[in-house]
Amino acid sequence: MMKKKLLSAVLGAAMAASLLTGCGGSESSQTEAPAADTKTEETAAADTAAKTEGAETETAGETASTGTGKVYYLNFKPEAAQQWEDLAAKYTEETGVEVSVQTAASGTYESTLKSEMAKSEAPTLFQVNGPVGLATWKDYCYDLSGSEVYAQLKSDDFALKDGDEVKGIAYVVETYGIIYNADILNDYFTKDYAVVKSVDEINSFDSLKAVADSIQENADDLGVKGAFTSAGMDSSSDWRFKTHLANLPIYYEYQADGIGSTEAIKGTYLENYKNIWDLYITDSVCAPSLLSSKTGEDATAEFALGEAVFYQNGTWAYTDLSDNGMADESLGMLPIYIGAEGEENQGLCTGSENYWCVNKNASAEDIQATLDFLNWCVTSYDGCDTLAYTMGFVCPFKEFDNYPAANPLVNIANDYVSSGKTSVAWTFTTMPSENWKNVLGSALLEYAQGTGDWAAVETAFVDGWASEYAAANN
Asked: Per-residue pLDDT tens for 401-417?
């Protein structure tokens, strides 16, 4: 579990940038990797230092020397595809080193990675989602312990290790919760029918439900269609509920049992999961029967247009909301409350499922070129500025202290940590497989539509976990 001390350091320092992208782009899953070649790992040579002048301050950057090596990055985030291509082109223009970027379609990263790794021109740079993903791909991962990019990491807690070897490095830290429209909520607080008079009074599932129910009952007076945006269950949106929302019952079970992973989830908090899911689909802008066709874009539009007050999503949603006309002061974020004991002290969900890995089976020249490119990304002005502001990442590297956050949702996340709230760790990285998520998502939709019952959700959650874990671990 991520400790509060670490979170405070990361969210106070590593959150030195704004967030644009999140888990919605695609999701890692665990499948059988193609057989790895046995090639000798080459030790990374020292990078050539170069100074690059920043927007306001001069910062030290690393520029790779030109050579015969090249970089092929299989990008995890479709929403950042163009930004990565632009950054790659800038690096090639500066160094002469070829950098190609291919982006997997939403929800297809693992299958795309498996396919690309079987080719003669395999990715030199790819990513895994955490310890479970690393278990599948660790035989392909170059040891980064002697690399410059690893030396730039703020904390070892953002390194994936296999023994003493560093197999992956987190490159973005993200936070999610229930984003709210402060303008509408503040208007609600002035009404005679308001059940609370301040957002500070919404600090539990019971208080969240009371407010949502009240808003739903008085939607016409408030000029909204519902309390929550649509809980769309197509592939552009279902990850918010089969992964991010499902994180909460897993997190609290792990907390209660004092563990960090399990081969057999018990489902201790599944009734809490049901309660928050019921709230999402009943106090909503649309009928539950419509959820199969509702998309992530629908939810974004509903929230930006002021049709709903609450929207479960993360700090990466800021740019979309801003581009749709929402002012910074109109945005707030609450924790996702599910009725767990002590949740009044709960903060937002913070973590990473984005770890860079370098393909150890690439040529020595390509490995070096890839290491040089990564170091340039996290030390040069062009790299840091692009990651921090164009892509909107919160990056856990030293240089990013010089890139203050422009995203109000990131600052809200900082405030929760500063006030002593306990951030919720991203335990969903321990989910046994992508298939587990998909079966759970189908069961959630069937339940919402009235074509299935909650028992099927429980079966998918508990029995599905045990069988998928067993399959993944033989």
From this structure: 899 888 899 999 989 98
Grouping H, G, I as helix, E, B as strand and the rest as coil, residue 294 is: coil
Element (H, E) at 232: none
The phi and psi torsions of 173 (rounded to 5 degrees) equal -110, 135
The residue type at 111: S
Beta bridge pairs of residue 422: 346
Distance of CA 90 to the CA centre of its chain: 26
17-173+352-403 and 176-349+426-472 in the same fold: yes
Helix (H) or strand (E) holding 416: helix 408-418
Q: Quick one: CATH architecture of 17-173+352-403?
A: 3-Layer(aba) Sandwich (3.40)
- Give the pLDDT confidence of 307-320 residue by residue, as tens digits: 999 999 999 899 89
- Residue 113 to residues 25, 27, 75, 287: CA-CA distances in angstroms? 15, 12, 10, 37
Average pLDDT, the chain: 88
Asked if CATH classification 2.40.50.100 holds for the domain at 176-349+426-472, the reply, yes or no, is no
Sequence spans of domains, the chain? 17-173+352-403, 176-349+426-472
* Confidence class for position 52, pLDDT limits 50, 70, 90: very low
Q: Which residues contact 412 (CB under 8 A, 6 or more apart)?
A: 331, 332, 333, 348
